[in-house]
Amino acid sequence: MQKARTWLAGTALLLAVFLVYSNHFHNAFHFDDFHSITNNVAIRSLSHIPQFFVDARASSVFPAHQAWRPLVTASLAIDYWLAHGYDPFYFHLSSFLWFLAVLLCAAALFRSVLDRAQPNADHFFIAWFAAAWYGLHPAMAETVNYIIQRADVISTCGVVAGLAIYARFPAWRQRGVYLLPVALGLLAKPPALIFPGILAAYLFLIEEGAARDSWPRVLGRSVPALALSLVFLVLQSAFTPKSFNAGAGSAFQYLITQPYVWFRYFTSFFLPLHLSADTDLAPLSSVFRLEAIGGFLFAGFLLFSIYLAAKRPAGHPAAFGLCWFVLGLIPTSIFPLAEVENDHRMFLPFVGLSLAVSWTGYQVARRLSWNREGRIATAGAAICLLVVCAAGTRQRNQVWHTEESLWEDVTLKSPKNGRGLMNYGLARMSRGDFQGALTYFERAVAFTPNYSDLEINLGIDHGALGHDAEAERHFRRAIQLAPGDAQVHYFYGRWLKGKGRDDQAVAELRQAILINPDYLEARLLLLDSYAAQGAWSSLAPLATETLKLAPDDPEARRYAAMKPAQAMPARLPSAPTPETLLNLSLAAYQRNDFQSCIRFAQLALQQRRDYAEAYNNLIAAYNSLGRWDEAIAAGRQALRIKPDYQLARNNLLWAETQKNRVASAGR
Asked: Which residue in 13, 515, 607, 660 has a CA-CA distance of 20 to 30 Å to 336?
């Protein structure tokens, strides 16, 4: 009966969580997903997986974001392989399976904690309810929907699974089996380094019953976990590139803000009404600010609550859960990061808080009334709570569905966040609403006046609106603000190329590649510029280098195989292949014979209807002829076939902006 009941509870939990999250599997990539996943060439081949464990540069195309998280990067490569590209379903499915593992391990751990502290038949239901509350809580959707933050899911899974194995299988402790999942967690994200502290809290409060003379035994039994964490701390330090930049400003201001952030996280557990993908909370400037004082008082309240709960055996599970909450917050509190708070940082701490609050609620219900009617009322309230959480999670999944829906929500929840306003403007710009985007970019300037990314987007938007002088001014200011950022040179070079200023464009693109040699988009655009100029002596070595960087990229292969343009043949070969026709189309384009370029591309498409590269040639030729509608139609076909085809996306964007410019001039 016990096994059957456990299987039934586990199945019900997994089914409920799956149903609640069933509307999230096709949600878009967001924010840091772009530099670490969709633009990251390294994850496009399984052959790179060994490299991930010794070279953190493969984790992102941006040097400042390159961190040693090899298990995460390897899992992304596997997802890409399964999806044959960037289908978000496979990426979300992978993260979701890790999430389900967290829930099952949490339920097993909670049951062990409760049984050791005070055996009771109700513990079965409390443990599964706590796991369900955690799994259905809307705050967890902030991590589950954010693909690159599977790092939090995997590291939390390692911590929870490690402690569950330690608690449930004492005979395995001498062999160190419980450390294996912890090691996996440490390969995903540094917060798993806190495992020795959580283990010590478990040993002291649960197994030793908070006996004062137990500390030597507790510390002795924590030594293997501590040694493992120290080893990984050394590896983390050794493999993290010097280019990594957490982006924090004042370390002092960050640290004094954290107790207040703890309070905000704690209240979000009970009222998750203000979840935001990008908060506008700024670091506190003084310890005498009301928020800082309140934060320190709250931290003191937490510690005092742990002390009171630890004084009696019935309170030990609550004390342990609160300890977990505090310890889970420490890694992101003592290491200054760019944002003082982030919703995905609640993922690890809320495991302990779910246990503490569930156990405390059960104790209160028992004292108030534990007859048949009281038990029914408690069960009804618990079910209603889970239903409300499930509804909130479904709603958060919808918010994360697209870039536009996500950043619109940010502008509402965090109206003083310049980056959020900028990203919402960027989402509007991507669908052609350039004037609406400009409104949000200009609002963002008030909060982030020296933000190079914002200047880039202002340049792009003004360029699309035909404000060339304004566009160039913003691009140049972006370079002044961040001369060592490859992005600013790439986007300025792209704009210059569109304006026919090829020599200047080439100079900017070369600078982008010099700063970041792994920047594939800059390389492809520079190759395109060389090809258009007929600069074969420059194209050939760059194409060879690019092919080494991205051996599976079709554009890199095409440029590497390209030969100098020759005279148009008097007649076609007797049986031309699609590849031959594509090369003839490209050669015609390079001679500015755009009609022949179109003809050969169309012949290639007659043989291969899903030839995205042929559609890209059509876009380029139609753009050169000013036939914007035909260029847009060809661009949409190219992206339908190959959604991650960046060169086609760039050419399509140019066609759309020029069409809008002509329409605006006509009005």
From this structure: 515
Instruction: Kindly state the helix (H) or strand (E) to which residue 658 belongs, with its residue range.
Output: helix 646-666
Q: Are 333 and 341 in contact (CB under 8 A)?
A: no
Domain region containing 595: 578-666
Q: Whole-structure pTM over 0.85, yes or no? A: no
Q: Which of 338, 365, 399 is the endpoint of a domain?
A: 399
Max intra-chain CA distance, the chain: 96
Encoded amino acid at 297, one letter: L
The position carrying tokens 């970019």 is 441
For residues 271 and 443, what is the distance between their CA atoms, to the nearest angstrom? 29
Taking alpha carbons only, the member of 396, 368, 398, 394 closest to residue 381 is 368
Task: Give kind and range of the element (H or E) at residue 665.
Answer: helix 646-666
Q: Rounded CA gap, 101 and 87, in Å? A: 23
CB 108 within 8 A of CB 344: no
Residue 503 domain-assigned (yes or no)? no
| Helices within 63-214 (DSSP H only) | 70-83, 88-117, 123-136, 138-144, 150-168, 179-186, 195-202
Q: Is residue 157 part of a domain?
A: yes
Instruction: State the 10-residue block means of pLDDT for the chain, 667 residues long.
Output: 85 96 96 92 92 92 91 97 94 98 97 87 92 98 97 98 96 95 97 97 94 92 96 94 83 96 97 93 94 97 96 94 97 92 96 97 89 90 96 97 94 93 91 91 94 94 92 96 93 89 91 92 88 79 90 83 55 71 83 81 88 92 86 91 87 84 57
Among 514, 523, 513, 512, CA closest to 556? 523
| pLDDT of res. 332 | 94
Token look-up 């890790």 returns 98
The answer to whether 191 and 155 have CB atoms below 8 angstroms apart is yes
Number of domains in the chain: 2
Give the pair of three-digit tokens for residue 310: 């630890």
The Cα 109–Cα 18 span in angstroms is 21
Report the distance separating Cα 390 and Cα 248, nearest Å.
Answer: 35
- How far are the Cα atoms of 299, 308, 311, 462 from residue 302, in angstroms, in the given order? 5, 10, 15, 51
The token pair at 441 is 């970019």
Distance CA 242, CA 349 (A): 29
Checking phi first, is residue 336 left (phi over 0); if not, alpha (psi -120 to 50) or beta? beta
Whether residue 236 lies inside any domain: the answer is yes
